[in-house]
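Good morning C.,

I know you're traveling, so I'll keep this short. The sequence:
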Amino acid sequence: MKNSQYLLPANADDPWNLLDPAKVKKAISIRDYMLGEGRFNADANDTLTTLAEQLVSAGLPLHRCVTIVRILHAINSASYRVWEQGRGAIANVFPYIGTASTEYETSPSALAHETGRWVRFNPQNLQETDFNLVPELKQAELTDYICAPTLMANGMQNIFSFATQAEAGFSDVDVALLRATFPAIEACQEILVMHRILKEVTRMYVGEEPHERILAGDVHRGEVTRLRSAILFADMREFTLLTSNLSAESATALLNEYYDCVVPAVENNGGEVLKFIGDGVLAIFRAGQDDAKACAKALRAARQGRLAVADRRKSAEIQFDVGVALHFGEVAYGNIGSGARLDYTVIGRDVNLASRLADMCGTLGKTILVSEEIRQHLSDEAFENRGSYELKGLAGKIPVFSEG
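The tokens, ready to paste straight into the viewer:
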């Protein structure tokens, strides 16, 4: 096997037999921390720092410790944390690129994952082409490097690595200390990773406030939350026509370009995207104690979204227009569905009104339409009256206003 000379034995002797009573006590303390306080720590940087400091206190000549974990995130593929002696731990992410990177394929992590065994070497004795990390490890004057794979119950593979600048590297007792404590280290990592994944996945699919409510236990059918807010509903005009001759991949790419125009504008102005409905975006701006301020944020977001679409026109091959409707009222969101299959969604007359106003953008040839409620809250804005219309599903005629 390529690079097999760097693999530690898969079935080592019981590491506890190599530890004297003092080190056994230290190892038990590390194990108890990782399975106790460490797994409840909301700050993973702090957990890694405490672990590293405890290993040093137990006599391990540790100068660098790195943890790399896969995450389920829309734009990032992994998180990595680096602890260095005297600096504490810092965190960063690897962006998602769709395929395994050359950096990973030439890394000790890849070998550890492939074999399920610990990888160990002295960077100073290797060629810089042996592993991608060798130049970095040499520059850091590290003399012994151990890369240990971790396996989660769901099959995801992660990494812990330990490195030292000690002239003699890690001793047999040092390695035994790591092996003795590693099952607890691995378990703590899995718990923290799964907690992060649970939060990030629910946030991705249902939004900030709903994800917090779901994780707090709001998972029963019929539970509804009401709040007053400015409501923004945007959709892409003629989406069906624009995508009728496109492949599914091209249509999805176009839709994502549209979302990239609208969603940042919403979030940069304090709004929350609650739902993607085909080519529609439903967002709210919570009122709190200031209705007018929420309406002003929504209008700013609509204008910025319009500018983003206009800026995209300068280089895009396929052009599209966007229609944005603004209304102020009450949204009700919660769990609806049947049996164990629920959807966290938003309902209510005011949501329907915003949706119907967005439909009117194409009819009236306007990018931004607002309701009477928005006009009243933003009396300083020069909205033009476009008349009153009967909107599907709503009783009576609804006054409609546009920006210019």
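Safe travels,
E.
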